[in-house]
Specification:
169 residues
Length: 169
């Protein structure tokens, strides 16, 4: 995909590449926040606040791929300080609504896997838990929403879900 900033055949400038990478990461972070909070508007506000915090660090454009971990951690902190975990959603699909009754730690595991498309290992690294704890959280989510809804929401095995979430994430 060529942006208007580049002529045909020219490589994209670093700033354009950075924007594209951050946009892909923001889609994952928004999906994570929406599943944990359960309300699109509230989740988008929290993600916007996290993005402002990220930009305030004056990030190096060449290291945009590292923003995934920072943004998800910022969203987690903001949800805990803003009262977002107590909110109840109005715009989640009915099949995923039982996630809102689960502890926030379990919702985070499910949201990172189902919403952001991260693998179990990536979820464990990001949340600083063991892979077994991540699997246990996913099993709780599967039991709450049912295997059919869980399998439908789960990322495809061949979709390379961590392509824009580096090992630090």
């Amino acid at each position: 995909m060529k942006l208007a900033l580049s002529a045909p055949g020219e490589p994209l400038p670093l700033a354009s590449k950075t924007v594209m990478i951050v946009e892909k990461i923001l889609r994952k972070v928004r999906a994570f926040a929406r599943l944990v909070i359960g309300n699109r508007a509230d989740a988008d506000e929290v993600v916007e606040d996290a993005l402002i915090l990220y930009l305030s660090t004056d990030p190096d454009p060449g290291q945009a791929e590292e923003s995934c971990s920072f943004l998800i951690q910022a969203v987690r902190r903001l949800m805990r300080t803003s009262g977002a975990p107590q909110r109840r959603g109005t715009d989640l699909e009915a099949a995923l609504t039982p996630l809102l009754a689960m502890p926030i730690e379990t919702r985070e595991i499910a949201a990172l896997h189902l919403g952001a498309g991260l693998t179990v290992d990536a979820v464990a690294r990001l949340l600083e838990i063991t892979p077994d704890e991540a699997v246990a959280g996913l099993n709780m989510a599967r039991a709450a929403i049912g295997p059919l809804a869980f399998d439908e929401a789960a990322p495809a095995a061949d979709a390379a879900p961590d392509a824009f979430c580096p090992p630090a994430c």
